[in-house]
Specification:
heterodimer, A: alpha+beta, 2 domains, 9-stranded antiparallel β-sheet, 5 helices, 34% strand, B: alpha+beta, 8 strands
Chain lengths: 259, 191
């Protein structure tokens, strides 16, 4: 019985092999199969590109880079404040130790994410005080607003070098009160001085900031009850290198200290 | 053939004859039907070479027609696929350019200096087996992608820095956006 079945199977198979019917149908099927393969490959390439586009939109290199800059800025200010508050002869050394540790930790933290980050900084040894411009550089904006919506404030200006007049304007909605500085030295404009001449809320503005360099601090609170400190001694240039598989950047950022 | 015709003449299908033919077997037994069967099975005047030539010719004709019709169809879908891919790819490049630009702008707004910046992006060497060009134009703020098969797509972009005009050709696959700090320009080059 088994032999009969196997013989029938063999006969059917050989018949199928020798059967030459429907050649054009086979040919058509073959061409359609090739066409479908081509279309599928093209469609898959479109889908692949679409996925890459989505990935491009969600690339985090930019935010990582910005975060590094922000963290470097905050840490340099912290390091400066901590070391200068402690005082002593080792102020700069303490600052450098603080920053070295920060730089090492940053490298370690970002290495986990597959990113290489290095932070190099400068200290204020042999460095001039910042100019009274918006960014502390001599070519920065000379007329700029330091504080707005101020309720109470004390302004300290300590001029090291001056080549022309430096003015501090206190402005409210109806009045401008101006204090002029022409010589090196420290001056304090107290809250009482200001309130004797102008009513709050007011803005504090530096005029001709590129004419002088030195230190300043403005402390007080706003009409909304928020305390603030704006102060600048130096502008320390910090260089940050950032690289991952996609982005490689080397930037130098001026950071004003202590705030 | 003549024999077949003569056989059929004497076997005219009248209504009267049909009435006597009670089943199909009767019909098959007519002289005409027998003649027709003989004619179909007759291999006289059939040469193997002529048969082969005819079969070959017909096959070539049908195959060519099929291929041509399918080729046109595939060309159409190829162009559509290229255009679609260009749109997605161009938008991706525009996004990456904006990312590089905003990074530069942010650093500049911080008062910082960009000493060097490289923002890498990849593009396929060919799309649907065709090479293509990418034209970055600053005057119209457009990325124009153009393929060898005629597919052309324009993608607008918006950046705050200037862009150096350049036309790139596929093949390099890896490209980068850079920043020229002397001129404040974003530039594109092969890596």
């Amino acid at each position: 019985m088994k032999m009969v079945v196997s013989m029938i199977n063999k006969m059917t198979t050989s018949k199928m092999i020798r059967n030459q019917d429907a050649q054009f149908m086979l040919l058509g099927a073959f061409i359609i199969a090739i066409g479908l393969t081509v279309v599928t490959i093209m469609l898959s390439s479109i889908i692949f590109e679409g996925n890459k586009a989505i990935m491009a939109g969600s690339d985090e290199s930019k935010t990582d880079m910005v975060n590094v800059m922000q963290m470097a800025q905050d840490e340099i200010r912290n390091a400066y404040r901590n070391s200068t508050t402690l005082g002593g002869d080792d102020t700069i050394n303490n600052f450098n130790i603080h920053m070295r540790e920060f730089g090492n930790y940053m490298s370690l933290i970002y290495a986990v994410h597959g990113e290489v980050v290095t932070v190099t900084w400068e200290d204020w040894n042999d460095k001039e005080y910042a100019y009274f411009t918006d960014n502390g550089a001599v070519n920065g904006m000379p007329d700029w607003i330091v504080a707005e919506n101020t309720q109470n404030s004390t302004i300290m200006v300590n001029i090291t070098n001056i080549s022309g007049p430096l003015n501090v304007n206190v402005i409210n909605a109806t009045k401008i009160w101006q204090k002029d500085f022409s010589f090196p030295g420290m001056s304090i404009i107290s809250d009482d001085d200001i309130k004797a001449n102008i009513n709050p809320p007011y803005s504090i503005k530096f005029i001709n900031g590129s004419n002088a360099n030195g230190k300043y601090s403005v402390t007080g609170n706003t009409v909304y009850g928020r305390n603030f400190i704006y102060a600048r001694d130096y502008v320390l240039n910090t260089t940050i290198t950032f690289s991952n598989s996609k982005v490689s950047a080397n930037v130098t950022v001026p950071i004003s200290v202590p705030w | 053939m003549l024999r077949f015709l003569s056989l059929c003449r004497g076997d005219v299908m009248t209504l009267k004859n049909l009435r006597y033919m009670k089943n199909i077997k009767d019909m098959k037994n007519t002289k005409c039907m027998k003649g027709m069967k003989d004619l179909l099975g007759n291999d006289d005047a059939v040469a193997v070479s002529v048969g082969f030539i005819l079969m070959f010719g017909i096959t070539v004709l049908v195959f060519t027609t099929l291929i041509l019709s399918f080729y046109d169809l595939s060309r159409q879908s190829e162009k559509t696929a290229t255009r679609n891919t260009f749109e997605i790819m161009g938008q991706r490049v525009a996004i990456e350019m904006t990312a590089a630009d905003s990074m530069v702008s942010y650093i500049n707004s911080f008062g910082g200096t960009v000493n060097s910046i490289e923002y890498e992006f990849t593009l396929p060497a060919s799309i649907a087996t065709n090479t293509y060009s990418i034209n970055f134009t600053n005057s119209t703020n457009d990325i124009i992608l153009e393929s060898d098969n005629g597919a052309r797509v324009t993608i607008p972009f918006n950046i705050s820095n200037n862009l150096s005009d350049i036309e790139l050709y596929s093949g390099a696959e890896i490209y980068k956006f850079g920043y020229d700090k002397n001129y404040g320009n974003i530039n594109v080059e092969e890596k």
